[in-house]
Amino acid sequence: MTKNITITPATGTWVVRAGGAVLGESSNALELHEGDLPMVIYFPRDDLGMAFLDKTDHSTTCPHKGAASYFSIMSKSTTYENAAWSYEDPKDDVAQIKGMIAFEVQDGVAVEQV
After folding, report:
1. What is the CATH number of the domain that holds 30?
2. Which residues fall within 8 angstroms of residue 62, CB to CB, at 6 or more apart?
3. How much is the pLDDT for 107?
4. Do residues 84 and 59 touch, judged by C-beta distance below 8 A?
5. Which has the closest alpha carbon to 52: 99, 109, 106, 98?
6. Residue 76: domain span
7. What's the predicted TM-score (pTM) here?
8. Which residues contact 100 (CB under 8 A, 6 or more apart)?
9. Where is the DUF427 domain (predicted)?
10. Residue 80: pLDDT over 60
């Protein structure tokens, strides 16, 4: 595994909310730690309401994880632009997160352990 990245099963059940709505809940989430960055929870797609997510043209590249594609979150009153991302074809060292989705915690978007 890349020296500064660790991926482990997330303990307990995790929920993601946006605009007050629950987008998903999972007891199969993964916890990713990368250097000094805040921990990120990755959710399996099967545990998310994918109808709330709209794939965008935005992408970024991480030297350790590969190319990330992004989704905007559609809530009743707001669209959270590029607030979720996924590695569709990650580098081998982080293959566990393939196709899973992580969320940018911000005003109106929360990822919490329940």
Report:
1. 2.170.150.40
2. 68
3. 93
4. no
5. 109
6. 5-113
7. 0.94
8. 30, 42, 43, 44, 45, 86, 87
9. 15-104
10. yes
